[in-house]
Amino acid sequence: MSRERRPGTVVIAGGGTGGHLIPGLVLATAIRRERPDWRVVLVGARRGLEASLLPARDFSHHLLSVEPLYRRQWWKNARWLHLFFRVVREVRDVLDAERPALVIGTGGYASGPVVWLAARRGIPTAVLELNAFPGLAVRRLARTVREVWLGSPEARAHLRPGRNTAILETGVPIVAPDPELRARTMSGFDLDPERRTLLVTGGSQGAQALNEAIARLLETDLAEAFQIIWLTGKAGFARFRHFHRPPEVRVYDFLDPIAPAYSVADLAITRAGMMTVAEVCAWGIPSIMVPLPSAAADHQTPNARAMAEAGAAIHLPQSELTPDRLAEVISELLASPDRLVAMRRAALARAKPDATQAILTRIGVLSG
User: Fold this and answer.
1) pLDDT on residue 239
2) pTM listed for this prediction
3) Where are the domains of the chain?
4) Does domain 181-350 bear CATH number 3.40.50.2000?
């Protein structure tokens, strides 16, 4: 089969979690909007979130047999002795079938093999690194790809790019905030515009530690200070759905899109995945960030620290997350309206609302 590149064809590889899948979908949608004559193909993993979401989206896609590398349960990596050649064969088949003019990796275990093999073939490649501390795959790929797009400026110091690799601080591609959405969401959710709204989200996978802390918090008088939108994740929904008492407490497993929840939030309690960080910054939401301690290479902790050092968030390690400590932090913020205003401004100062357009410009340059 010919390996001649097909003009206007872009492969976007990434997934596993929403933090890697959603940026790819945002880029794919933006490319289609700006260049309807181009073909966008998404590549993910059969065991990732994309396996259930991509079939419902109007994009061509491929799912690979790729699996994550395990750091703690290292013995599970023995499967890669068998998987490696299968995954390489599958990636070759995708590249042969699509003949892309450009390959973009958005992170997650599905992106590395696709970007790596594309770069070896001489196909223009770029990777998007969302986190303040880059993952192992991006640190390695930075030596061979054409461009690395950073979601956080702190990541630059940890990269050793190749001679022909450009490092650009683009920001994270997200759906731009709609200033008119708040009023529509308040009405649609039957929320009281005179009360403050607390958003709790552990990301697409949910967060057991956050869910348990919020359940205990709802048993205290502090719960009366907010109306709450609580996203438990699919795994925790059955256990916590009985707290659903609209409009005071609204419990969902996941919201897609999540923008309506962000539009009404006056304070957010979140994990510290970079997609979440980018979204709370774009919406200017003061936040209490509880990094996932088991995240690969503990990459969420640097994200939370960067936000805290900028004055945009409170960094609350999970080891310190108790109902009493969470109530104390919330009470301190409620007692200091000026601090909440300052946190909002600091979050907005870190936002890059033009990130998607900046990356679209680079896509046009790289694809010729």
Assistant:
1) 94
2) 0.81
3) 6-171+353-367, 181-350
4) yes
